[in-house]
Write a structure and sequence with these properties.
By secondary structure, the chain is α+β, with helices and mostly antiparallel strands. The protein contains 3 helices and 7 strands. It has a 7-stranded antiparallel β-sheet with strand order 1-2-7-3-4-5-6. It is found in: Cell membrane.
Length: about 160
């Protein structure tokens, strides 16, 4: 191998490592545990998440659980919910009592209100505002569920 080829290979490998590092610093893959976002997101789904603090109404977000269980399971320390109110928005009526906001109260700066898609879910109606600093990112996509389809036995 010539010196020029070795140099080009080393340079290419360095560029590839830098690109992967940049990509990893901006994206993350999370596995869902639970059904609070069903039917949009199911237990066991994997979510591609963009690490950012910029969110919009309706975005599905991943954030650190404000009250994690102490069993050491890292998957349970993160929650996936949908943003229903941003800083400056009116506090939704079903959350007012939890956060002590008066009628017409606003979501404070640095806070979000989140809701699960499922009927039975723990969300801002139970634990109040979520600090923007607890936000891990916004869900970009969920890989196809094809691998989870039930395999049927042979026809008789």
């Amino acid at each position: 191998m010539t010196r020029a080829l070795r140099t080009a290979t080393a340079l290419g490998a360095g560029v590839l490592c830098a690109a992967l590092g940049l990509l990893r610093s901006r994206l993350a893959l999370f596995r869902v545990t639970g059904s609070s976002m069903a039917p949009a997101v199911a237990d066991g789904d994997r979510l591609l998440v963009r690490r950012t603090a910029r969110v919009r109404h309706g975005d599905a977000v991943v954030f650190r659980d404000p009250f994690p269980l102490g069993d050491g399971d890292e998957a349970l320390a993160r929650l996936v919910k949908r943003v229903s109110a941003l800083p400056g928005d009116p506090v939704p009526p079903e959350v007012r009592g939890v956060v002590g906001a008066p009628v017409g109260g606003r979501v404070p700066p640095g806070s979000l209100v989140v809701r699960g898609d499922a009927v039975r879910t723990q969300d801002s109606r139970h634990f109040g505002h979520v600090a923007e600093s607890a936000l891990l990112g916004v869900v970009l996509t969920r890989p196809a569920r094809a691998a989870r389809r039930r395999v049927r036995g042979p026809r008789k």
